[in-house]
Amino acid sequence: MPPRVRFSPSPTGPFHVGGARTALFNWLFARREGGVFLLRNEDTDRERSSDEWLEGILDGLRWLGLDWDEDIVRQSERRDAHLAAADRLVEGGHAYWCDCTREQIDARKGPGGGYDGFCRDRGLGPADDRVVRFRVPDGGSTTVVDVIRESATFDHATIDDFVVVRPGGAPMFVLANVVDDDFQRITHVIRGEEHLSTTPKYLMIRRALGLEGDPVFAHLPLLVNEKRQKLSKRRDKVQLLQYRDEGYLAEAMRNYLALLGWAPRDGEEITTVERMVEQFRLEDVSRAPAFFDERKLQHVNAHYLRELSEAEFAAAARPFVERAVERFDPELFAQVAPLAQTRVKTLAEVPELLAFLFTDAVQFDEASWEKAIARNEWSADVLRDAAAAYVEAAWETEALKDTTLAIGERHGLKLGKAQAPIRVAVTGRTVGPPLFESLEALGREATLARVNEALERI
RNA sequence: GCCCCCAUGGUGUAGCGGUUAGCACGCGAGCCUUUCACGCUCGUAGGGAGAGUUCGAGUCUCUCUGGGGGUGCCA
Which of A76, A174, A177, A322 is packed most tightly, with the most Cβ within 10 A? Predict the structure, then answer.
């Protein structure tokens, strides 16, 4: 029997990197084991769920290349099955109707106190304003066996009778989970650690329903922020597709996500998805929470960026540049894009590097101007010589380099020094892509205009 | 409060009773070099604390400490 796993997000907000990591680990496991990767839309909270959020999740999964098998199960359409299970629980004495309000519970146990079992034996029948509570066995305990963290035992005495059906017949998450996992014949439940403490409830419901053959559990370590708290959409940058929009490649994101709580056995952190599938073992997943470190993500992304062919890089970077510069020129861009390839960590950094080629007005960075031009008395001489020599020079990289080299020698300057004022005059900054390649691409006319403009500005 | 989980450099991790505690990110230095990058080389920094088991402990046990998650008529 091939393993069957599921990713079951709740479509109540933008797709989260934590969710993406959970999906990825499920996917890697399924692909590694020749299993089946299923999707379940957990939209039982009708007020908070929407199809638009679901679309965002699907977009994210497609972007990462996480393809799923079989049709997506929509949990809200499984309501009858959930309620039938609740009926069976009540009939079997494993659950009961309860009409306590939060206020009444607080009045009896104090604010924040748990449920005290008040309605356990009142024999209440169904009503729209009543809930169904699971009757937690009085004694004993439930042990969760977990591939990643061995086992965790929970005494029943520490678990209050919990709600399985809300007023109006809305099934709760745990009930729906148990029923649908059984329906989809899920063999391995791979999810975030935040679900570990609800797992005994899951198991108790299974027992009460008489279900046999528990799935294997694997609770993944949480993804946390720099303060070591679980990533939250309120405080942290967690939207998966925001990273795409900021110039990260899907391959890089997928590779980085895999590294959070897991490491390839061969030690090669940056690796192909095929190698990840080959090496993925659930028992190799670590137990400690992992910090989502964007700096390391940047490193991984830069690596993938450099691995692209020049044409692929240009194609990937083009939309970022096109919308950021004054006058986009496709041919010029194709020519200069490779100059940026080893100089950026994300595609979003490409425009600032190349913008000087797609504008009429150079933006001078004042610190650069000061450092390369204003502070050096020889800078005006270099610029004057360049303005003269560039009129006649052959307009290609090597010739421009030789010409500039000669100008430097005349003033006792190495090329590194001599090129600085010219670079600032033409690009506005002391750092940027290789100068002579840039000049060749910019053209003689624009270059001369900028050098002369700088001369006047001194 | 109660329950549960976790603990190797700043970060992600390797190790699975005997290692000079490895790798990667970051950071620092050097080389390369038309700036900046890339690349290469070197360096920086680590098993929370205390007991115990053992000839020997990051690795096993216990206590404590710290962090986190859960404790909903959210998922």
Answer: A177
Is residue A293's beta carbon less than 7 angstroms from any atom in nucleic acid strand B?
yes
pLDDT 10s digit of each residue in chain A, 458 long?
899 999 999 999 999 999 999 999 999 999 999 999 999 999 998 889 999 999 999 999 999 999 999 999 999 999 999 999 999 999 999 999 999 998 899 888 776 678 999 999 999 999 999 999 999 999 999 999 999 998 999 999 999 999 999 999 999 999 999 999 999 999 999 999 999 999 999 999 999 999 999 999 999 999 999 999 999 988 899 999 999 999 999 999 999 999 999 999 999 999 999 999 999 999 999 999 999 999 999 999 999 999 999 999 999 999 999 999 989 999 999 999 999 999 999 999 999 999 999 999 899 999 999 999 999 999 999 999 999 999 999 999 999 999 999 999 999 999 999 999 999 999 999 999 999 999 999 999 999 999 999 999 98
Task: Give the containing element (helix H, strand E) for A315.
Answer: helix A310-322
Separation in Å: B29 C1' and A299 CA:
21
CA distance A362 to A368: 13
How far apart are the C-alpha atoms of A329 and A3, rounded to whole Å? 52
Instruction: Write down the residue that tokens 């059984």 correspond to.
Output: A182
Q: Report the distance from CA of residue A171 to the C1' of nucleotide B65 in Å, as an integer.
A: 42
Nucleic acid strand B: bases within 7 A of protein CB: 1-8, 11-14, 22-26, 34-39, 67-75
Amino acid identity, position A43: D
Nearest nucleic acid nucleotide to A306, CA to C1' distance: B38
Query: Can you tell me the distance from the alpha carbon of A333 to that of A346, in angstroms, rounded to the nearest whole number?
Result: 17
Q: Tell me the nt nearest to A10, Cα to C1'.
A: B75
Q: DSSP string spanning A56-80?
A: HHHHHHHHHT----SPPEEGGGGHH
Strand runs (DSSP E) across A13-140, as ranges?
A: 36-41, 73-74, 95-98, 131-134
Catalytic residue among A233, A237, A371, A401: A233
Q: Which two tokens stand for residue A122?
A: 């009142």
Nucleotide closest in space to A300 (CA vs C1'): B25
